[in-house]
Amino acid sequence: LTFLGLESSCDDTAAAVIRHRKGEAPEILANVVAGQEALHAAFGGVVPEIAARAHAERMDIAVEEALSASGLGLSDLDGIAVTAGPGLIGGVLAAVMCAKGLSAATGLPLVGVNHLAGHALTPRLTDGLSYPYLMLLVSGGHCQFLRVDGPESFRRLGGTIDDAPGEAFDKTAKLLGLPQPGGPNVEREAALGDPKRFVFPRPLLDRPGCDMSFSGLKTALLRARDAVIAEKGGLTVQDRRDLCAGFQLAVAAVLREKSRRALAECPDVTAFAVAGGVAANQRIRGELTALADQAGVPFVAPPLRLCTDNAAMIAWAGIERFREGHQDGLDLSARPRWPLDQNAPAMLGSGK
Ligand code: ATP
Ligand code: FE
């Protein structure tokens, strides 16, 4: 099967082509991602109106680029997959309308995909994982454990009840005067710092289950920073490094312990996979690798360009859903909210 995938639920306009022949590894024939950082930079966050307009202007260009990079035409495709939510509704609509137009014009099957399912199924695209596996999605907008039993079957074991870790990294950078995005910059400083000088709280470790909280960390960081400033009149380079190191260690420790519990809840999984921008963090990755080793399951982290928002994961999820017999009509609707696990409570603080 060969699918075109479209994605526009946040601030990336993306189109990709995936080909999968049964029994062979899937091939990414094209993976076009047009980011919008420059458009939103001046506003300190994604502005929904600006994002929606930019997606509408760029979606068909991304599709043309993806098709030309793949060397295929529309007639070579078997279907069109599109993110139908969750996300900024104006943005989601851009790809949904484009996909419907293409489907109506060509007669190709249309498959609506949950953006989070795209992330959660990525380790099957990149590493050929078999079901069931445990997934930790950890990014600027999300933090949750999912047990993945099939392309339509997800169980949420827990997640953040407030901020996502990426958000906490970004706020930490802001409080310490480091540039955005915070994650990579905090990591760089932390590598040169003493993680034991400032001890930050490890929220919810005293409670059972896999829920997490990261909003208290930034308050603790603010307090520690202000205590140093009150004492010395300012922050030295080393103070900043030590604060970053203490903060990063606290996040890593919470993720490790909660991952241990999530793995203990599903002893039958074939692997432990992580995705999302925060999975790029070497310290966090190290903790999670060590933990998976201990539990005796392989640790899998797809390459970063497939961990952050992209359309290859949407095309792949579309192929998987289509194989399960799923197809949508031209009445497919865009959904601002769409929990993966219909039985889970509303995803507090999940960002979407
Ligand atoms: P989502 O797509 O889930 O809505 P997002 O677009 O913010 O959220 P990603 O692009 O997956 O998510 O990840 C970006 C986040 O990852 C940012 O918050 C960034 O600070 C964080 N991040 C990136 N690299 C690192 C790193 N090395 N260490 C820690 N955090 C990092
Ligand atoms: Fe995403």
TrEMBL record:
All residue ranges annotated as the Gcp-like domain in the record: 27-316
GO biological process terms held by the UniProt record: tRNA threonylcarbamoyladenosine modification
GO cellular component: cytoplasm
Cofactor: binding details: Binds 1 Fe(2+) ion per subunit.
Gene Ontology MF: a single term: iron ion binding
Presence of keyword Membrane: no
Cofactor(s) named in the record: Fe(2+)
Pfam families for this protein: TsaD
Residues that, per the record, bind substrate: 137-141, 170, 183, 187, 281
Main location: cytoplasm
Gene3D superfamilies, per the entry: 3.30.420.40
Family membership noted in the UniProt record: Belongs to the KAE1 / TsaD family.
Cross-referenced HAMAP family: TsaD (MF_01445)
Reported function: Required for the formation of a threonylcarbamoyl group on adenosine at position 37 (t(6)A37) in tRNAs that read codons beginning with adenine. Is involved in the transfer of the threonylcarbamoyl moiety of threonylcarbamoyl-AMP (TC-AMP) to the N6 group of A37, together with TsaE and TsaB. TsaD likely plays a direct catalytic role in this reaction.
Name used for this protein in its record: tRNA N6-adenosine threonylcarbamoyltransferase
